[in-house]
Design brief:
Elements: E1 2-6, H1 13-21, E2 36-41, H2 45-54, E3 58-60, E4 63-68, H3 80-87, E5 91-97, H4 113-145, H5 149-166, H6 178-185, E6 195-200, H7 212-215, E7 227-232, H8 234-242, H9 245-255, H10 261-272, E8 275-280, E9 285-292, H11 297-304, H12 306-310, E10 312-318, H13 320-326, H14 329-334, E11 339-341, E12 352-357
Parallel strand pairs: 1-4, 1-5, 3-9, 5-6, 6-7
Antiparallel strand pairs: 2-4, 8-9, 10-11, 10-12
The chain binds guanosine-5'-diphosphate and magnesium ion.
Magnesium ion is lined by residues 13-14, 71.
Length: 359
Amino acid sequence: MKTGIVGLRRVGKTTLFNIITGAAAPTGPGGKVKAHLGVAAMPDERLDYLGRLYEPRKITAATAQFVDMPGVEPDEMKESAYLTGLRLVDALVHVVRTFRDETVPHPASTVDPGRDAADMELEMILADLFQAERRLEKLDKDLRKVKDKDLLAEQAVLQRVREFLAGERPLRELTLSPDEEKRIRGFTFLSRKPLLLVLNMDEADVAYLGTAVDHFGLTGWRDRTGVALTGVCGKIEEEFSRLTPEDARTFMDDLGIPEPGLHRLLRENYRLLGLITFFTVGKDEVRAWTVRRGTTAPEAAGTIHSDLEKGFIRAEIAAYDQFVACGSMPALKERGLLRLEGRDYVVQDGDIMLVRFNV
Ligand SMILES: Nc1nc2c(ncn2[C@@H]2O[C@H](COP(=O)(O)OP(=O)(O)O)[C@@H](O)[C@H]2O)c(=O)[nH]1
Ligand SMILES: [Mg+2]
């Protein structure tokens, strides 16, 4: 699973990417740059708690992959190289600028996050429409030669897609049957990808962090299918990332910030992607693992090691909250809360799992 960070030039994409992934990609001017790939460790208080309890040799966080895309002007989005890169990602983080800084010129010369969010959305809709139309033309030709049943089904769903896009609506909001969904999956339409709008805010606006969406006029983006919003202060986050966790905590308390904005960003991204976390614990390692919501126990075991999936017998599962309430694994067992689950069990967010297997 990979998330693309998109947006206009000089909105703070690379600044945020660097803090999230610990990379040191060049920020600031530099014209057209290539995409950067990085991995973020998912912040998780549950993992911290389990780490303190088990004191293992190693604590491993779940991870999320990000691609810092080069900045574009909306009208450059049609360039095929850019679109090809974008089609490969599973979700989008669109960074829109709300910070004011005379030394950092805005490509549209005024700061207007609502306009920038809408412009980018429209460009994605148009790119999808172009793609759907091209395919429909080809289908039309092919269907004149032979009335293939699959091609007819594809044509029907693409006609719905075209109509929807022509109404300037993103495909996220189009309800499709599982069969229709399967037929258009290969197009990797941009306006169907989950979207996290990130408002990159001025240090001076830190008081608006909790209310940024309304304060900056993006209320209309709330409650849209597949869309989430969050505000961060890129400059402040950059300072946090240079401090020890203790100093960062003190600094955040002074500013009245309950948690780093980047944690929220990472959590929202994870949620939009439909991902959940399960844990494995022990003296050697306490680890958080990422799976899609709906993953069964043997599939989850397979993310740890393929042998665990092949030789899966059953899983011992403890729900995180019950584990915390009991305070330890023996106490949990004593109260009969350690469950034995079979092949059909669907892993839940926060499950602590021990796989019984035989190879
Ligand atoms: N004042 C201010 N400047 C920022 C902020 N975030 C980024 N910048 C500056 O804006 C410029 C462009 O940032 P960069 O991360 O390279 O933007 P990108 O082109 O979107 O990747 C750099 O000089 C950053 O230091 C912010 O929150 N506030
Ligand atoms: Mg950049």
